[in-house]
UniProtKB/TrEMBL annotation:
This is ParB/RepB/Spo0J family partition protein. SMART domains: ParB. Residues 32-122 form the ParB-like N-terminal domain. Belongs to the ParB family. It holds the Pfam family ParB_N. Gene3D superfamilies: 1.10.10.2830, 3.90.1530.30.
């Protein structure tokens, strides 16, 4: 008698006697206490979790009252859970010495999880330009995927209505901004990290930064060198001319330096010094801010001395 090849899969006792009701119950969302060690951040999470004053306040609150609002996470095939909403709460709980946090476990695909992750974080008061830029980009891509599958539902509109709207306009409608402004934020993701950090630190304004995002990465590096030499941030007009130079293939360090050296309208009544003019008076280790603070301190001392001399 010939042997039958292949393995036989046996159904477990629990599976045999599992009812439809118990199977459905497994799919229901419910809050569970889950170990922090089993939680992992959302892939490419665009929002920064930093140990600032706000985090200190959150940590103190969690230590006293616990995590009052459950996190939202989805189970991973390889085990553990991916946080969709609640990264800051999870970090605060860990700092407070908690080992478990309440989590609403939800089955979600990548696109739906991305949309929820972005929406839940955009409710925060203080969001950096870089955070908003990458969040918009991630959500826009997820919305496009959902639209291609035909299951995109924004405010219960039909697929026909959604198709008539640009994805950026739909996203902007959710966030209270125009589709064009959404696209301008997404442009910032093309900046090299050094320039994007300057935008977050308000060393470069938003509108000039959008124009600079059209420069190739190596051109941005060159611009950064020119900016460092002249110790000045670009105006919108300067950034637009730098962009035009790049588009025409005429962008060089000299041309960038020449544009950045121009006196802006708002600077006509200012007294400015080039970096090399001041460096000889300070230790090499001094930063620009330290030089500025020292100069102001010396001017203050000079003014007080002048006032005392006049009183004599």
């Amino acid at each position: 008698m010939p042997k039958r090849s292949g393995s036989i899969s046996l159904t477990s006792y629990d599976d045999i006697f599992e009812t439809d009701e118990s199977r459905a119950e497994k799919q229901l969302e419910r809050v569970q206490n889950i170990s922090i060690s089993e939680l992992v951040p959302f892939k490419n999470h665009p929002f920064k979790v930093v140990d600032d004053e706000a985090m200190l306040r959150t940590t103190e609150s969690v230590a006293q009252y616990g995590v009052l609002t459950p996190l939202i996470a989805r189970p991973l095939e390889e085990g553990g859970y991916e946080i969709i909403s609640g990264h800051r709460r999870a970090h605060a709980a860990e700092l407070a010495g908690l080992t478990e946090v309440p989590v609403l476990v939800r089955q979600m695909d990548d696109d739906a999880a991305t949309v929820l992750m972005v929406d839940s974080n955009l409710q925060r008061e203080n969001i950096l330009p870089s955070e908003r830029a990458f969040a918009y980009k991630m959500k826009l891509e997820a919305m496009k995927h959902q639209g291609e599958r035909g299951d995109l539902q924004i405010e219960r509109t039909s697929r026909q209505v959604v198709d008539k709207l640009k994805s950026a306009d739909v996203l902007g409608k959710d966030t209270g901004e125009s589709g064009r402004q959404v696209q301008r934020y997404i442009r910032l993701t093309n900046l090299i990290p050094e320039l994007l950090e300057m935008v977050d630190q308000k060393q470069i304004s938003f509108n000039p930064a959008v124009e600079l995002s059209y420069l190739a990465p190596e051109e941005q590096e060159t611009f950064l060198a020119a900016m460092d030499e002249v110790q000045a941030a670009p105006s919108l007009s300067q950034a637009q001319r730098l962009k035009k130079l790049a588009q025409e293939g005429d962008f060089t360090l000299d041309s960038a330096r020449e544009i950045m050296n121009e006196v802006k309208k708002g600077d006509l009544e200012r007294v400015t010094f080039r970096n090399e003019q001041l460096r000889k008076y300070f230790p090499k280790s001094y930063t620009t801010q330290q030089m500025q603070d020292t100069i102001l301190k010396l001017l203050d001392q000079w003014q007080k001395k002048k006032a005392r001399d006049q009183e004599r």
